[in-house]
């Protein structure tokens, strides 16, 4: 993979192999990377190809470039993991999001649960979601993803997440009170191509919540004999899933 700086660009900004960049990307190119006309960047736009773009004009509010080459890529995991992560304290959710992107997650949904300490008011939600989308974008650039994972537009309940993911091939809830079943105990006739994963907050899921998600077909799974921190559990769970059915 090329070491050129990477950008995700809406397809509407590429017409007849001509690229126009606007917004924060312009400032990043001009003032942070200090690129000039003649330099090259890589761009992906709703496809499986990285486009090599030669900058033609670097202006104060727009950057213009020309597509000079394309390369077919396949960096996404064959396993589509949809993570439902309960809100966690301080910047732990930000950390979870970054690591989840690196581990190939396809979507992340922030959840409010019975034992969540964090409460986000409706007036703060738009700002939080915007921040998380930006983190997903930046992390995708950093680790060389060819797709930016979807961050849900709002904080959801367990029931909402379960309903929206009823169609996934496999549905798992990693729960510290499960003491018999681990991931390798799950025996499937057909290898799953999609999985919905639930991870709780610092205090874990309540027994009532576990009973609720089981009604939606979620299986409880252990992450081992030791109790993992809220920010550690999703990283371990995703790595195990990618190792068994994904691309690790």
CATH H-level superfamily title of the largest domain = SPOUT methyltransferase, trefoil knot domain
Q: Mind telling me the CATH class of the largest domain?
A: Alpha Beta
Average of per-residue pLDDT values: 92
The major pleated sheet works out as:
7 strands, parallel
Shape type: elongated
CATH topology grouping of the largest domain: Alpha/beta knot
Gyration radius (Cα, Å) is 20 Å
What is the strand and helix layout of this fold?
Layout: E1 6-8, E2 14-15, E3 18-21, H1 24-32, E4 40-44, E5 49-58, E6 63-72, E7 80-86, H2 92-102, E8 107-112, H3 122-143, E9 150-151, E10 156-157, H4 158-164, E11 170-174, E12 194-199, H5 207-215, E13 219-221, H6 233-245
Parallel strand pairs: 1-4, 7-8, 7-12, 8-9, 8-10, 11-12, 11-13
Antiparallel strand pairs: 2-3, 3-6, 4-5, 5-6
Helix pairs in contact: 2-3
Molecular structure report:
It is a single chain. By secondary structure, the chain is of the alpha/beta class. It folds into 2 domains: 6-72, Beta Barrel (Ribosomal Protein L25, Chain P), CATH 2.40.240.20; 80-245, 3-Layer(aba) Sandwich (Alpha/beta knot), CATH 3.40.1280.10. The protein is built from 6 helices and 13 strands. A hairpin with a 4-residue loop joins β4 and β5. The radius of gyration is 20 Å and the shape is elongated.
